[in-house]
From TrEMBL:
GO terms for biological process: mRNA processing; RNA splicing. It is found in: Nucleus. Its main location: nucleus. It comes from the Eukaryota. Pfam families: BCAS2. InterPro entries: SPF27 (IPR008409). Keywords: Coiled coil, mRNA processing, mRNA splicing, Nucleus, Spliceosome. This is Breast carcinoma amplified sequence 2. The keyword Nucleotide-binding does not apply.
Length: 212
């Protein structure tokens, strides 16, 4: 024996039904039912994948925290660009070698900076324009997709409203026809009752006449 209850089907025509407007007590009942509904869960479903953390280095993380806390930008460290001479007098060969290596490193660093600035001056503006063009193109495509989606949503809602208005009018006509048929049946039943009473009266009168 199958004890499984059939699924309940809830159907409505929200664009056509106006029972909540006609009968205010229904609105109160609906609000009461909504108040008894459990609140939405605060945690995500277990099947939802965890949030992916972006690739952030410790230095970048510290900089983001500094910007979030509105702290001033640290002063530029100029010590690394200085060329200190050996502190001892007379200096040893190792100290002079360390100072010379530092001077070579600073010189190479300045050369690399000069090359980077030259490359940036030559190709940086074009790369920036290309990047801006790509971003503008992506933004236009996104805006176009958004407008198409909005138009599609409006069209779907318009079709739903027209369909529900059409079906609602058919239902109203059928309900009116059903009411008329029920009224006709009741009138026929009342006429039958009246005829039965009249027949019973005539039969009774006929019997009385027959006795006489």
């Amino acid at each position: 024996m199958d004890t499984t209850a059939p699924p309940e089907i809830f159907d409505s025509l929200p664009y056509y039904d106006d029972d909540l407007t006609k009968y205010p007590h229904l609105q109160e009942m609906v609000e009461g039912e909504l108040a008894r509904e459990p609140s939405a869960p605060q945690t995500l479903h277990p099947r939802v994948p965890p949030l992916v953390e972006p690739f952030i280095t410790p230095l970048l993380k510290a900089e983001l925290e500094r910007a979030a806390n509105n702290k001033p930008f640290p002063a530029l460290d100029t010590l690394r660009y200085t060329l200190p001479a050996p502190s001892s007098t007379p200096a040893t060969d190792e100290e002079w070698k360390s100072a010379l290596d530092n001077a070579h490193a600073q010189l190479q660093h300045q050369r690399i900076r000069q090359q980077n600035l030259a490359l940036l001056q030559t190709y940086g503006s074009n790369a920036w324009r290309i990047q801006n063009y790509l971003l503008e193109s992506t933004a236009k495509q996104t805006e176009t997709s958004l407008e198409q989606l909005k138009e599609l949503t409006v069209e779907v809602n318009r079709e739903r409203k027209n369909s529900q208005d059409r079906v609602g009018k058919q239902l109203t006509a059928l309900e009116t026809r059903w009411t008329e048929l029920i009224s006709s049946v009741l009138q026929i039943e009342m006429a039958n009752v009246a005829l039965d009473a009249e027949i019973n009266r005539l039969n009774k009168k006929e019997a009385e006449l027959a006795e006489l």
